[in-house]
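chain below, 556 aa
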Amino acid sequence: MTDGMVTRRGLLKGALAIGGGGLIVAGAGGEVVAASSSLAAKNTPTPYTNMFRRPPVLMPTEQGVDDKGPFHRYRLTQKIGQASILPGLTTKIAGYNGIFPGPTIKVPQGTRAEVRIANALGAHPLYKGEFSTVTHLHGSASLPQYDGYANDHTRPGHAKTYRYPNWQQARTMWYHDHNHRTTAKNAFVGLAAMYHLSDPYERAQLPQGEFDVPVVVSDMAFKSDGSVKFDGEDNAGFMGDVILVNGVPWPKMRVKPRVYRFRFLVSSISRSYRFTLGNGEPVHVVATDGGMTPKVNAVSSWRHAPAERYEVLIDFRKYKPGTKIELKNLSNKNNEDYGNTGKVMQFEVVADTAAPDPYVIPKTLDLGPQPFANLGAIDVNRLTPDMATARRSMRLERKHGIWTVNGETWDDVEKTGFQRVFAKPKPYDVEIWDLVNESGGWFHPLHIHLIDGKIIGRNNTPNRQAYAWEGGGKDVFYLGENETVSVLMQFTTGGGNAGGRYMVHCHNLIHEDNDMMIQFAVGDINANDPIKSDAAYGDTEPEQPVVYAPSYPLGT
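prediction:
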């Protein structure tokens, strides 16, 4: 068996069963942990009985205009909360404002955001020791000191104000923990939430308001008392048996006979999904990680790794009230599946007294002007290979039981005082990176911070390029088993003093926590030091009341 590969037979042969909950730990290969919950029947959720709910939308504490333009200021507190996920039990989580998912932040393009995040966390639900955090706004072209650098810790009792430029075109982003060595545990217990960046072009072409729906998909396992069940030590992945949508197990959503836009984010630690409608009808992909796609593609299913974002349109106008449609998970290789992990959520069409929906599903989308084009920035969808000034290879492999990128780990980076880098492109340079999965039979969702990339090939074969659902900018690249993906990217930093060091890592968060991470630098390697330039500070300010926007009725 290749190092890094595990089969179902090999897994079971080397497994060690722990307790009555069915926890399975791989043997010598250490490849996967899969956990079925230890719940009594009365505490086990039944699919499609709980109503769908949307995370609340956080309102700014202050907004205005200064000499740099419009701004919004927000406040978040990381703290322990109690979640009602299971019937008859509560689950201790650690969330932004004590909820999971955390509140959604919505900001228009061109409005800077200052987000003060205070660490008021007590004992961690999963481990002993200091509950430090780092917040990464995934998808944002932030300066390094606000990008969530893994060693830029915020300790309990401290706070940090993150400054986000929001100059990019409209897109679905998300903020989550990125603390070195505990990212998986911290995100698993709740430190994850959406962040929506809008612009006039997106607002004019895609459904808004009630018909613009956030969908955060994750998986969990639970102990008999309702607490989370997790074991990711020295293993390559963790997968639970309960699928959550916005923190609700297998919810049912009431939809009107209209066109809905769903923003799908997978916040799972390791599990990937292949989403499809149970009736076989297509969905229309209108956006990827980097925002709207130039062409709208209809697909019957799409493959979705942790941290990827896909926005799809579903047309419910053809169905009569009372029609029920499942959203299913067909799964992918190297997932550990259980009885109900093939289910995600259910839509139930209800009557609508409003006039018929006139929305026409577009075939193409106008993405609007490229920011900083005057400095040389190019729309990611218009990049061509002849623009590249360098081509580099990045190999993902398992060496001596350790997950590595080009044979290196974050430990190697730390030992050089954070000076070791994979590449040093200049601002606005265009390069091709060949991402090579040599780790045997595992898949890797590789995340490259800062950039939007365009997939131009797979396995160096011209007729194996981007899948239909990947027709736009990406910052997470699904590297299937033994697959090479070629990515064309520009290092667009914005204006002013942008530049510095950014991370590249596997977004299987257990891989990341086992040091499967390196870095690159844009421009001056020591510009905007990600740890020292704007460090966390002692938190002496009292927690303020939280204000959320009015929410939609439960179940819609």
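The longest helix spans residues 8-14. The chain is about 5% helix and 35% strand.
thats it, cya
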